[in-house]
Write a structure and sequence with these properties.
The chain is an all-beta fold and 180 residues long. The protein contains 1 helix and 15 strands, in the order E-E-E-E-E-E-H-E-E-E-E-E-E-E-E-E. The strands form 4 sheets. Strands 1, 2, 5, 6 and 7 form a 5-stranded antiparallel β-sheet that branches. Strands 8-9-12-11 form a 4-stranded antiparallel β-sheet, with no helix packed on it. Strands 10, 13, 14 and 15 form a 4-stranded antiparallel β-sheet that branches.
Length: 180
């Protein structure tokens, strides 16, 4: 079949239901091509095509069915990923912070793996527990035993996130009695 028709390609996100429409290039011999570029939001997409405004029919049907594909997050970005929501601790009591692992386009990246976290300060025997929310965020619980200034260093997928400094207050008083 010869070209000369108007072919449009529709790209729809199944997650956000946002739609982009592209004009296909006519090669003049019945073949059309469209470049679907700049897809920066991860998720599942559906591609459909129309010729002169009508659904394309014919053989083989497998080539005419909507095409689904997944866009996965790009590599971890130091500029987009964050250590946030730090709750400064009290010596002997859990404190916490949140790690948001994101790619260059700010998509949460749940496949980056476990972070390497180091805590530096007066109490180097601090306990660290990581709760992976499996959505690109992780809650980190820490407990230190001495008050003072601390820093958190976090590396994930070989990317060093920004260093975070914080202070820990003196621990709770226990076992103290007074006499009058």
């Amino acid at each position: 079949a010869a070209g000369g028709h108007i072919c449009t390609v529709r790209l729809m996100s199944e997650d956000t239901l946002k739609v982009r429409t592209y004009s296909a290039n006519d090669s003049g011999d019945g073949r059309y091509s469209a470049s679907l570029f700049n897809v920066t939001v991860s998720g599942r997409y559906v591609v459909t095509a129309k010729l002169n405004g009508n659904a394309i029919s014919g053989q083989p049907p497998a080539l005419l069915a909507p095409v689904k594909f997944d866009v996965v997050p790009a590599a971890v970005s130091r500029l987009q990923s964050r250590v946030t929501d730090l709750t400064p601790g009290t010596a002997g009591v859990d404190g916490s912070f949140l790690i948001q692992v994101r790619d260059t386009y700010a998509n949460l990246n749940s496949s980056a793996g476990a972070p390497a976290i180091s805590l530096a300060g007066p109490s180097l025997e601090g306990n660290i527990r990581i709760i992976d929310n499996l959505n690109g965020t992780m809650v980190v619980l820490y407990r230190v035993t001495a008050s003072g200034m601390y820093t958190i260093d976090c590396t994930i997928a070989s990317v060093e996130l920004r260093r975070v400094g914080f202070s820990v207050l003196a621990g709770p008083v226990s076992g103290v009695t007074s006499t009058a």
